[in-house]
Amino acid sequence: MSFFSDVERDLVVQARHQPAQDVVALDLVAHNGRDLPAWTPGSHIDLRLGDGLVRQYSLCSDPADRATWRVAVLREDGGRGGSVAAHQVEVGQRVRVRGPRNHFAFETGPGEPVVLLAGGIGVTAVHAMARAAAAAGADWSLHYAGRSAATMAFAGELVALDPARVHLYRSDLGERLDLEGMLAGWPAGTRLFACGPRRMMDVVERVGADWPAGQLCTEHFVAREYGDPVWPEPFEVELALSGQTVVVPPGRSVLDVLDEAGVLVPSSCREGTCGTCETPVLDGEVEHRDSVLTPSEKADSLSMMVCVSRAAGPRIVLDL
Q: pTM of the prediction?
């Protein structure tokens, strides 16, 4: 079950530290010392970083600590500018935050075995899950792959939770995580939560494509790649609440056309990874091109991410 909050608030950077090479961790607190809203493992927040930059970062602190939210950001100089801006945030600075939201909820049944899989900075998405599993006495394990000890954020504190359950794979030592072998013959009833680079996630989702619904849970930091849309022609989008109809031409997103028409739809990443622009669908076939909805949610087509997903035919109706 996903959790959403669109509330925005100003928080103060209480501390910053470097848990790994090129990674900065920011501890955020309320300026008046009050408790922050409760959140669940797998949640993320939006950070407004100035000049129109809004980026999503997983909460990787302890959910039981209501005083502090922590995010950790890998600097990517060749990226879109968000990570560089986050690395320039200073202690004492106020930052605008929206959320938390959770599309990657850590939900397990009683006694259900859990495996957490992380690659690189993807560890931030499963960090709180490991804490929760350890605190609950669950049957869990974590497999965490990275380039070297210097680049693997939070590895030490995760190992400290239970050294027998946390497995590190350092490529500089020739240690490789055999995903194909690990996932082959995956035991029924074992739930996998995975977050990592595109190559890792492609393998996970290919191998897990035929698993029972809910057994594989994934989080993507990078947008999926899709080919040409299945409906290459313009299509109509009817807005049920206002009665307005707009036409989305090839090469433009539903969100862009709605923005141009003055229709307010909250948005952030504009690449189908954050879930901010999720909009209810009342009628019509949708080609889902996001990295948020589960396969069953896409099959139901009760909502769509209007930043990337499109109509699979000449017309759709949205609850706007």
A: 0.85
Mean pLDDT in residue range 32-42: 95
Q: Determine contact, residues 80/52, Cβ cutoff 8 Å.
A: no
pLDDT at 45: 94
Q: Which domains does the chain have, with CATH numbers?
A: 8-101 (2.40.30.10), 114-219 (3.40.50.80), 235-318 (3.10.20.30)
**According to the model, what pLDDT value does residue 5 have?**
63
Question: Quick one: which of 40, 195, 23 has its CA closest to 129?
Answer: 40
DSSP string, the chain: --B----EEEEEEEEEEEEETTEEEEEEEETT-PPPPP--TT-EEEEE-STT-EEEEE--S-TT-TT-EEEEEE--TTSSSHHHHHHT--TT-EEEEEEEEBSS-----TT--EEEEEEGGGHHHHHHHHHHHHHHT--EEEEEEES-GGG-TTHHHHHHH-TTTEEEEEGGGT----HHHHHTTPPTT-EEEEE--HHHHHHHHHHGGGSPTTSEEEE-SSPPP--S-S--S-EEEEETTT--EEEE-TTS-HHHHHHHTT-----SSSSSSS-TTEEEEEES-EE---SSS-HHHHHHTSEEETTT-EESSSEEEE--
For residues 28 and 66, give the distance between their C-alpha atoms in angstroms, rounded to a whole number. Answer: 11
Distance, CA of 24 to CA of 89 (rounded, Å): 10
Residues 6+ apart with CB under 8 A from 234: 247, 248, 249, 250
